[in-house]
Amino acid sequence: MTSSSGSYKIYTKTGDEGTSSLYTGERREKSDAVFEALGDTDELNSQLGIAREYCATLPGSSELCEQLEAIQSRLLDVGSAVATPPERATEKKSMRVVFPTGPTEDLEKWIDAYDAEIPPLKNFILPSGGLAASFLHLARTTCRRAERKIVPLIRKENIQKEVGQYMNRLSDYLFTAARIAAKKAGKEEVIYRKQ
């Protein structure tokens, strides 16, 4: 990954034949279920970056922005855990990617705090509420997709169940955060209306 001058190079050419390596060093097809889950998690992280930038323009949103930044870092930890199937990893590598329960507990605290600030839902709402809220809704749907890709890996590859728990709670957090962002933007929630 370094050039002759010692600087970092982004390309390695090792994936030119359609394979990539896990953190364990094992090479797999780029279409493998692990890389599908990693790709969706990376996509989610990018969407959260956009949402965070829009949230930063809202009044009183510094705490929300800090939470989103922390979540982006935790998603890199999710990726590390997914890219390190325990049965194929050395003990040292397995220990480096242990996913703790603390981040999931943080999400629960944040959800509870935001729930106290917004009215309870009596109907479905449509994803909207300004740019920040809309991107948080988009991130929520991507989070659900990533979770659907991770769940089979928990069963098949023995990925830590805490990763799945985090992703499940994260989509709940993102829904609540979208509602908070809409409130901070002064936008009314759009209620689903049956035809």
Automatic annotation (TrEMBL):
It catalyses: cob(I)alamin-[corrinoid adenosyltransferase] + ATP = apo-[corrinoid adenosyltransferase] + adenosylcob(III)alamin + triphosphate. GO terms for biological process: cobalamin metabolic process. Homotrimer. Converts cob(I)alamin to adenosylcobalamin (adenosylcob(III)alamin), a coenzyme for methylmalonyl-CoA mutase, therefore participates in the final step of the vitamin B12 conversion. Generates adenosylcobalamin (AdoCbl) and directly delivers the cofactor to MUT in a transfer that is stimulated by ATP-binding to MMAB and gated by MMAA. One of its GO terms (molecular function) is ATP binding. It comes from Chloropicon primus. Residues 10-180 form the Cobalamin adenosyltransferase-like domain. PANTHER family: CORRINOID ADENOSYLTRANSFERASE, CORRINOID ADENOSYLTRANSFERASE MMAB. Belongs to the Cob(I)alamin adenosyltransferase family. This is Corrinoid adenosyltransferase MMAB. Keywords: ATP-binding, Nucleotide-binding, Transferase. InterPro entries: CblAdoTrfase-like, CblAdoTrfase-like_sf, PduO-typ.
